[in-house]
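Notes for week 9. Today we move from apo structures to complexes. The key idea is that a small molecule is not decoration. When we ask for a structure prediction with 2-acetamido-2-deoxy-beta-D-glucopyranose present, the ligand SMILES becomes part of the input, just like the chain. The input block below holds both the sequence and the ligand string. Read it once before you look at the output, and try to guess where the molecule might sit.
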Amino acid sequence: MEKIFIAFVAALLLSCSHAQEVTSTTPSPSQNTSTPAPPPPPPPAKVVCYYNKLSQNRSDATKFNLTDLPKSLCTHVIYSFATLDPSSLSIQNGSLGSDLESILALKQEGVKVILSLGGRGDSLESEKFSRMVNNGKIRTEFIRSTVRFLRDHHFQGLDINWEYPVCWNGYCSKNRKHADRNNFVNLLGELHKGFVFYNLSLSVAVSPLQSIADEAYDIAGIAHNVDWVNLMTFDYTNGTFVETAIHSPFKGPPPSTVDTVNHWLLKGAHPRKLVVGIPTFGRTFTLAKPEWNVPGKPATKGAATGLNEAGIAAYFEICTEPDNYQREKDIGSYISKGDQWVSLDDIKDVQLKAEYIKNSTLGGGMIWTLDTDDFSGTSCKQGKYPLIQALRNGLGLENKAEA
Ligand SMILES: *[C@@H]1O[C@H](CO)[C@@H](O)[C@H](O)[C@H]1NC(C)=O
Ligand SMILES: *[C@@H]1O[C@H](CO)[C@@H](O)[C@H](O)[C@H]1NC(C)=O
Ligand SMILES: *[C@@H]1O[C@H](CO)[C@@H](O)[C@H](O)[C@H]1NC(C)=O
Ligand SMILES: *[C@@H]1O[C@H](CO)[C@@H](O)[C@H](O)[C@H]1NC(C)=O
Ligand SMILES: *[C@@H]1O[C@H](CO)[C@@H](O)[C@H](O)[C@H]1NC(C)=O
Ligand SMILES: *[C@@H]1O[C@H](CO)[C@@H](O)[C@H](O)[C@H]1NC(C)=O
Ligand SMILES: *[C@@H]1O[C@H](CO)[C@@H](O)[C@H](O)[C@H]1NC(C)=O
């Protein structure tokens, strides 16, 4: 049946005027072997690494050592976060630390260095972001001052991480719906236009939850107006710690990473614009009963570790506790010890996500954050930056060992 169909199609093709091109795809030595120009290769995948400036505030044992910055693993490093000044509605001058100089030095290695505005903390004052986007004159002034700020400080692009239009701090309001949603896209469109002349890139970081996206984002409009979208495909538990959960599931029951990507594709985003978030942090829980050590069991937020924040631990801390390690196929991994339980991405989880990104010709992978991977290579004994390396290798990028 199949063979007959193929023969029929072949006959049809041969009889039409494009026969020359069709036969030339199976050249024999006697034929003119010039084939049509192959399609241009896709742009190389991105490895977008956020750097958290608060890594400099950690105590000595967990503080990020700037001399360990990865010189050639990330294609983009995003300095986070700058904050928005609530009165002038421009980027706050005091947002940048003395660590910036080391980050900017990465430009000499070919890394693109970008500034991110917002983040969860600054978005607690979402009202100021809303005021800025919802007034055309203020937007224009914001763009003018931002271009100047980025150029003065030698950044190559801006990333916007307002959490979130319409859904301030995760709570969506009907009253804000049309204004925030439409004017956020207007801001991006105007920024993009304003940035072209100065060759500055524009990206956004977005919620992975469909419940937020449906209210906050005109997905097609956003994707059209930015260079790429950083999907924050982690923390699906949105910081609620009522039961154990794998916080950055690959697949499985929604919501999951694949689920979020599919939603953005369905709503009109080009695959190459989608950059998939991969966490180098784990979400930690204290189990109600130590024997309830699987996902979906009652639990509360885990005790603070070296990152000084309850409920969160760095990969370089988790990897040293291999007891009771479990992997749920195609979903993710977790570790338990006594009444402590951690959901994490290990090397295998990152490899799987990287393979998926490559297979689906997405834009690349995004790491939150480079300073919670095993940057020194001394904790996990898997080399320096084992998770970022796994992402790079999985995407098929040239393997560049960090000396
Ligand atoms: C093959 O054909 C193209 C035009 O169709 C011509 O330009 C080219 O010179 C030919 N090459 C050979 C090796 O005959
Ligand atoms: C980080 O540390 C510096 C210096 O100790 C301090 O001024 C700043 O407030 C700290 N920032 C945060 C967010 O903890
Ligand atoms: C940071 O790393 C450098 C080079 O490995 C080392 O000389 C220095 O002592 C480290 N600093 C801290 C505070 O650990
Ligand atoms: C930041 O500094 C620039 C140049 O000194 C100044 O024009 C601008 O008003 C300052 N911005 C804020 C928010 O203070
Ligand atoms: C957070 O997640 C919980 C459980 O999935 C859900 O009930 C709650 O509405 C979410 N909160 C926000 C602000 O999205
Ligand atoms: C634009 O900036 C990128 C880095 O972000 C750089 O690679 C590229 O060469 C620049 N292009 C021009 C025309 O300056
Ligand atoms: C990627 O594609 C290969 C070849 O088709 C397939 O074997 C593999 O399962 C895919 N992996 C993922 C994670 O999609």
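The CA atoms of residues 137 and 355 lie 45 Å apart.
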